[in-house]
Give the backbone structure.
Amino acid sequence: MTEGLAKLVRMSDAHEMVADPAEDIRGRKVRDADDNDIGKVDDLLIDEAEHKVRLLRVEHGGILGFGATPSFVPVDAIVRITDDVVHINESSERVAGAPPYDPELVSQDKYYEELYGYYGYPPFWGVGYVYPGYPFYR
């Protein structure tokens, strides 16, 4: 892994938006590989230097939005997007078991390395990485 990966920030904190508002998937339901509801896309983590979305912040569990747990899923897991749903190629159990992120306990770079390893996707900072085509933001 390269030293000092680009810092990823929540799109809502960066006050950025997807270039085409119709492609903003925040608030959409997330369904797993078996078409089961997982939760919803709460936010997007963006790489400000490359102007690309890298991770989905998916909230799952809880009741009526209370007590929901966030998990991060690489955009590489997206297989299809409709007007209301983001379909990913992972199970709900896999998303629920993803490594949690606590900036007080682990560096962001180390967390990304662990997260991409957990899901088995090539890391976005690796040689030869091909971006899956998720929309740019502006």
Observations:
- The chain has one domain: 8-119.
- The mean pLDDT is 86.
